[in-house]
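Figure 3 (text version): structure tokens given as input.
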């Protein structure tokens, strides 16, 4: 990784004052050991007119893997790359931010014992970073740095200049220029915003990161228009830490507007019991989304295929709209647990007449499943081996043929947002696969086309603008007799062109078998 900070000077204020501010002499290069490699500080140029300090960070890939082992996503910051072959040695990230705070700690605090008047002086500054990951693109780079007084140039880096049709990578070549900022302010901006743009940390984010953020963000973060995004990304989207940081930043803002100390503002608030509501569990959000979709479809007789321990069946029983609910699972143990959960042995006759639990495999046709208004496959398909999907497809869409079918499955793109899930790992040990939004849409579009259904897609859970929702749901509705098969309709319009990927190899894996072949399977 490489970063340079340059300044220009005048006779009364030579550019080589930069050496005093950084506490590194321009006449010699220095090396500093870090947890993940070696940081070198050198001056490519140093005279009265112009001075440039360079930080070169050599990353030890083996140390990065060993030290990151077992610490969330720290062991492999980018799930798309192997542990030992990744962009960490070359692209600015939290590794570089940590090196900045270690090598230039006094400069970041604005301390200069030899020339105490220098840290408070603004000077012409130019920062260059040749390779900076920007998850959000050049637009986000401008949105983060320009409010701080920087003139920003963020040029996208092509994936390969020899093949321009491949488009741009997620990296930019960044240049920042300003005449109104100090060196200390510059270092603090970089310390916070480099990992924010990369949107990944190479280490486990603990509660003390809140203090680090507030120290480095003092004087600029409370009023930054992108304060919430900066706080969330810097803290690796840990909602509890983000909430804590936002509350403290609001206290700082109030104290500044009232010309008071933060302690005075904080003490003025009476102590109250903690009333912060916990976020709704994703499983509960899935059930709510399923009930909403079934209600919208006007379904009364519903199949819960792969019902497991009966959580969804229990939820449906609470709504009198659903007059008949059938839970189906291949596991007798799961059905026994579901029966205990539902208290079937103590249930009133009228209520008991609405529910039935059946043992059966979704890989085979079953005449008991025909004639229902709707069927739900909630977090089921990912537990099947891919070669078995065509059989399930035919059993549900080709044989049972309910008017409405709901299918939910994890969105693998969202996995990077789970702070406790190591990169490259699936959410559950029994998951045979987890699909991207494009792969799921391709599979669903092909199923709908083969069996005469329309399909639309509904996000379940927080719909992240970059990686989508944690759960994706497809709502299949049978075409009216004689109607033209429209195949797909969208409820979340942020992924244009996904349905055109119906032939995607990763999504189908044999799903192009005919109904006859699937039935035979």
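Below: residues designed for each position.
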């Amino acid at each position: 990784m490489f970063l340079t900070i340059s300044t220009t000077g005048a006779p009364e204020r030579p550019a080589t004052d930069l050496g005093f501010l950084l506490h590194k002499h321009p006449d010699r290069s220095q090396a500093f050991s870090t947890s993940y490699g070696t940081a070198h500080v050198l001056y490519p140029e140093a005279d009265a007119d112009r001075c440039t300090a360079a930080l070169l960070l050599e990353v030890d890939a083996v140390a990065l893997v060993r030290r990151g082992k077992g610490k969330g996503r720290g062991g492999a910051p980018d799930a798309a790359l192997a542990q030992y072959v990744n962009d960490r040695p070359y692209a600015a990230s939290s590794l570089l931010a940590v090196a900045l705070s270690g090598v230039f700690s006094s400069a970041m605090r604005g301390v200069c014992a030899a020339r105490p008047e220098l840290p408070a002086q603004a000077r012409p500054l130019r920062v260059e970073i040749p390779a900076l990951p920007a998850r959000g693109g050049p637009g986000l780079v401008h949105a983060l740095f320009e409010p701080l007084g920087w003139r920003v140039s963020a040029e996208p880096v092509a994936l390969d200049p020899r093949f321009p049709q491949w488009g741009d990578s997620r990296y930019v070549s960044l240049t920042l220029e300003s005449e109104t900022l100090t060196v200390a302010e510059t270092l603090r901006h970089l310390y916070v915003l480099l990992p924010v743009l990369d949107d990944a940390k190479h280490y486990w984010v603990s509660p003390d990161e809140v203090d680090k953020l507030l120290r480095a963000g003092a004087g600029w973060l409370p009023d930054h228009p992108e304060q919430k995004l900066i706080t969330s990304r810097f803290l690796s989207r840990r909602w509890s830490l983000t909430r804590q940081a936002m509350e403290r930043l609001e206290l700082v803002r109030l104290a500044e507007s009232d010309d008071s100390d933060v302690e005075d503002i904080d003490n003025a608030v009476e102590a109250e019991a903690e009333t912060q509501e916990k976020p709704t569990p994703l499983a509960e959000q899935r059930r709510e989304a399923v009930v909403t979709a079934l209600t919208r479809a006007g379904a009364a007789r519903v199949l819960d295929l792969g019902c497991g321990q009966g959580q969804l069946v229990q939820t449906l029983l609470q709504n009198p709209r659903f007059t008949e609910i059938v839970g189906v699972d291949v596991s007798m143990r799961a059905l026994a647990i579901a029966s205990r959960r539902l208290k079937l042995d103590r249930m009133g006759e009228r209520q008991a007449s609405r529910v039935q639990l059946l043992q059966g495999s979704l890989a085979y046709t079953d005449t008991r499943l025909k004639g229902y208004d709707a069927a739900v496959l909630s977090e089921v398909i990912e537990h099947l081996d891919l070669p078995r999907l065509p059989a399930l497809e035919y059993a549900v869409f080709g044989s049972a043929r309910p008017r409405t079918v709901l299918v939910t499955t994890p969105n693998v793109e969202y996995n990077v947002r789970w702070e406790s899930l190591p990169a490259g790992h699936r959410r559950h040990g029994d998951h045979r696969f987890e699909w991207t939004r494009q792969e799921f849409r391709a599979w669903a579009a092909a199923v709908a086309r083969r069996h005469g259904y329309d399909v639309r897609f509904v996000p379940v859970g927080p719909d992240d603008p970059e990686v989508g929702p944690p759960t994706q749901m497809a709502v299949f509705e049978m075409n009216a007799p004689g109607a033209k098969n429209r195949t797909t309709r969208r409820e979340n319009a942020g992924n244009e062109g996904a349905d055109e990927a119906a032939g995607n190899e990763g999504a189908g894996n044999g799903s192009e078998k005919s109904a006859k072949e699937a039935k035979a399977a």
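Residues 69-81, 265-275, 488-521 have pLDDT under 50 and may be disordered.
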